[in-house]
Amino acid sequence: MPQGRQTCYRCQLPTDEPVIIAIEHSGSVASATVYACPSHARDYPRDAVAQAAARRRALDRGRTR
Predict the structure, then answer these.
(1) Has residue 54 got a pLDDT over 70?
(2) What superkingdom heads the lineage (predicted)?
(3) Residue 57 is assigned to a structural domain of this protein
(4) pLDDT cut 70: percent of the chain above it
(5) Element (H, E) at 61
(6) For residue 26, is pLDDT > 90?
(7) CA-to-CA distance for 55 and 64, rounded, in angstroms?
(8) How far apart (Å, rounded) are the C-alpha atoms in residues 18 and 43?
(9) What is the pTM of this model?
(10) What phi and psi, each to the nearest 5 degrees, are found at residue 26?
(11) What gap in Å lies between CA 48 and CA 53, rounded to an integer?
(12) Radius of gyration of the chain, Cα coordinates, nearest whole angstrom
């Protein structure tokens, strides 16, 4: 869970409820975490494999809609 306010990738406004939507890996040691506000989290283009893995984790933990 992210600590503090983060900036939404889409609206560029700070949010008190940041949602991690991607972790961008690069050639260096550091990687960038992409955050969104709850209303824009669904709009981020996602990787189908990552979505399937997230759904499987949700099912395993009993967190489905």
Answers:
(1) no
(2) Bacteria
(3) yes
(4) 69
(5) helix 48-61
(6) no
(7) 8
(8) 14
(9) 0.59
(10) -130, 180
(11) 9
(12) 13
E strand spans, the chain = 6-7, 14-15, 19-24, 32-36
Give the DSSP letter of residue 20.
E
For residue 11, what are its two tokens? 């609206």
Q: How many domains does the chain have?
A: 1
**Domain residue limits at 56:** 6-61
DSSP 8-class letter at 15: E
Please report whether residue 28 resides in a domain: yes
User: 7: pLDDT confidence band, cut at 50, 70 and 90?
Assistant: very high
* Integer Cα distance of 19 and 13 in angstroms: 13
Question: What pLDDT is attached to residue 22?
Answer: 83
**Do the domain assignments include residue 1?**
no
The strand pairing partners of 51, in sequence order, are none
Q: Hey, how many other C-beta atoms are within 10 angstroms of the C-beta on 35?
A: 21
